[in-house]
Structure formats: C-alpha cells, structure tokens
Amino acid sequence: MFYRTPYVLFAVFFSLSGCGQDYSLAPPADSEKITVTVKLPKELKTETMWVMYRSATCKRISQGASGQRVERDGHHSVYKEFQRQGQSDLYQIELLKDGGGACKWHLANVTFGVVYADPTQFGENVTYGAGGGVVVIFDYNNSPRGGADIKVDGDLTIKKDYYPWVSESFIGAYKKDVSLITEGNDYFLSYQALKARQVYFEPMLHTGFLVRSEGPKVKKKGNYATFTYPDGSMESVPRAKPDFLKLQTIRTGRAADCFSLWRYANCPDRRPDLLPDWLPEPEKPGYGRYVIVDEWGNELPAYSYRLVGQDGQIFRDKSDTNGRTEPLPVSAHPLRKVEFPVERW
Predict the structure, then answer these.
(1) Where are the domains of the chain?
(2) Which of 31, 127, 158, 265 has the fewest CB atoms in 10 Å of its CB?
(3) What's the predicted TM-score (pTM) here?
(4) Backbone torsion region of residue 297, taken as left when φ is above 0, otherwise alpha when ψ lies between -120 and 50, otherwise beta
(5) 322: which residues sit within 8 A by CB, 6+ positions away?
(6) Residue 326, C-beta contacts closer than 8 angstroms, at least 6 positions apart
(7) pLDDT of residue 72
C-alpha cells in the first residue's frame, strides 16, 4: 500500500468519544451514492481505496503541547477494492455519502490510484516507486495529505498524461524503482469536489516514452542525478523528478508552454475553446458564466477573452482560476462571437 500505513499508525494515538461504544457505520437505505471509475491501462493495476468518513458528533481526543484536551472531528476509515466491469477496462467502486450510525458519519475524502502491475518488466528486482495517486475531498476539511490543489463544481473527470520513470539510486542502500510521472510537483493529484456524484479517472500511459535517471555515487556538492529522456537527450540538474513538460514536448512536438495552464497564452499554436454550457451565477441572479479550456479540456486560468453577446454587448476580461469568465447578463446568452486576443506575459 502506497498510502495506508503512516496514517493508520497515526490514528492509533487518538480515541473516539461521544457515541458510547458504537461508532460503526450504519448507512441509511436512501443514502446518496458516489461512483468512482478508473479506466485502466493494461500495464497498470488499481490500488486499494482508502475511504475516510468524518463525524462532528464523535470527537477525536488528544493532548496538546501543554497537556490540554484537544477535540477534533472523529475519523472512520474503510478500505475498498475496485471491481472490474465485465470484460472492459473500467473498474468501479460505489461509495455511500451518508455513513449514518450514532456518530452521523459523512463521506470526507478518498485516496486511490494506479501502479505498475509488474515492475520487474523494467528489470530484475525493480520495485514500484511513487506516483499515480489521486485524492478527492468531498467536504470542507483537508484530507490526510492536506488540502486540494484544484476545486471543481459538479462531477469530476480526471484525464492526465503519465510517463514511466525508472530511477536508480546508489547512495545508502542500492535501489531501482519505476514511478509514474504526471504534471504537478507531487505524486498525488488532489481535488475538492463538493457536489460530485461521479468521479472518473483516466491515466493515459505513454509506455513508449520512458525516462531513466541515475543518481550520484558519491554524496558531494554539485553531484546530481542524470536524467536520460526518450529522445536521447541528457541533463544533470538539481531536480528531484524528470521534466514533465520536456516529456510532453518530446512526445507531441509542441512547445512546453502549450502544456502549462499558466503559460498557455505563450503557446505558438494554442487552440483554446469556450464550452457552450451556460452556468448560472447563484449569488447574482440573472447572470451566468462560460468556461474557457485548452484543447485537452483543462480549464485555463488568467486567459484573455473577448465575447460579443446576443444583444451586441462586448465583454473583455481574463478568466478566473477555474477558467470561468466574469459574470455575464443572461441577455448575452447565447453568444454571437468568441475571440481570444493574443496577449503574452
């Protein structure tokens, strides 16, 4: 298990109180369900899902630094295995949003992911390293791995490119492992999806674009790991992981900026799009927004747009961190014209 052990050990230092002796789950028959689906490449397998329920009724009691009593929401963990859907490459788990019971449990977050089914295909004694993990938070609290990097409305669809990385380390105990590399600085993708009832994860594995690294044999200032990329290029830099954007560029022939949401405006052949859905603004009746995405469907933040409404009114601004336009009056929908002015920064 790539995530279970440290948190289970952490949990035993606390006790639950406030529910007598019964703090088990007892979901009501009409509890809403959340379905998590993974579209699985043949080289990978799903990991056991860690499901965490939270209770404000049954507190978790601990001692503070000065010996004071500290109360936090109680946690209840459940572990579930994905089930294959027929002979397809789809694997699913159904979760109950309301955990019920005397503690009034509610679904707080899940941690799951994919790993290589057979790491030894990359060499004898090769083990699995890291990467391929996903955290989805369903309430306003952090997960055991911290807060969410991305917040979404409605259902959650995750489609990400992944590359195999074989790493060889020499200092200390010799180790050779294979990891999964995707965008971001962590090995886990982290989302908050308060309203999601469907979570879909599709790791798009590019097996033919393997990157290798060889760590230094002597611990010395200026000695770094050497990365060898699929095109034969090499670099020795103070970086913990391979350059994901470099891998994207090697595979597609497109500039690295095209794969960076915050630098997408600098992409030489950018292909932005405006989703046709009109999203009413709850806090501003009579107004709504559109969402700007790149050609892979990723929401583009701080991206310039010029929209001509149905009434001829012109709206020009930049999208927010979720790729949404500023609120537009309902009289602007549907739009007459959509433009993305060339602005570089």
Answers:
(1) 4-253, 273-339
(2) 127
(3) 0.84
(4) left
(5) 151, 152, 153, 291, 299, 301
(6) 289, 315, 317, 320
(7) 85
